[in-house]
Amino acid sequence: MDLFFTRVSGRIASFAGQPVTFIVAFLLIIIWGGFGPVSHYSDTWQLIVNTSTTIITFLMVFLIQNSQNRDAAAMQAKLDELIRAVDKARGTFIAIEHLTDKQIQEIRTALEKDCHETPDKYEGKEATVQTSVDRLLARY
């Protein structure tokens, strides 16, 4: 069942993210709107779009969440493997995604503090970051 749901949800999420899907949905709304005057803007006319969009949205939330969860888990596994494989990386960071938001924020704060207190250890990364950020902002 898991493999089937993974395949179906992946395909539907991929299809839903395509420009052609947006165009089809947009055209369906235009067609629905065109029938408004013909049906004298009846309750049934309104109910059709309200019900169909509610059902589609409800189901898509679960499919997209499944797809995002799978992508995040795969990314986390890849990052954990990189941490494990790099000699100077701290293995204690593996699986920190299971910590609370507060604990993760404390780790981030400590890392940033460590970076500022021992700049020679990081060989000017802060200056490099600032230069990169300035260059990025200058484009916009």
Tell me the helix content. Answer: over 70%
Q: What can be said about the biggest beta sheet?
A: none
Query: Average pLDDT, to the nearest integer?
Result: 86
Instruction: Give me the secondary-structure category.
Output: mainly alpha
Order of helices and strands: HHHHH
Count of individual beta strands: 0
Q: Tell me the count of domains.
A: 2
Q: Determine the N-to-C terminus distance.
A: 47 Å
Strand content: under 5%
Poorly predicted ranges: none
The number of helical runs is: 5
* Assembly state of the chains shown: single chain
| Rg measurement, Å | 24 Å
Characterise the protein shown here.
- This protein is an all-alpha fold and 140 residues long.
- It has two domains: 1-87, no CATH class; 99-140.
- 79% of the residues lie in helices and 0% in strands.
- The protein contains five helices and no strands.
- The longest helix is centred in the middle third of the chain and has 43 residues, at 43-85.
- The radius of gyration is 24 Å and the shape is elongated.
- The two termini are 47 Å apart.
- The model has no long low-confidence stretch (mean pLDDT 86).
- Keywords: Membrane, Transmembrane, Transmembrane helix.
- This is Low affinity iron permease family protein.
Summarize the structure.
Keywords: Membrane, Transmembrane, Transmembrane helix. It comes from Sphingomonas chungangi. The chain has 140 residues and is an all-alpha fold.
Keywords:
140 residues; mainly alpha; 2 domains
Secondary structure: elements and pairs:
Elements: H1 2-16, H2 19-38, H3 43-85, H4 101-117, H5 125-139
Helix pairs in contact: 1-3
Keywords: Membrane, Transmembrane, Transmembrane helix
Pfam family, one: Iron_permease
Protein name: Low affinity iron permease family protein
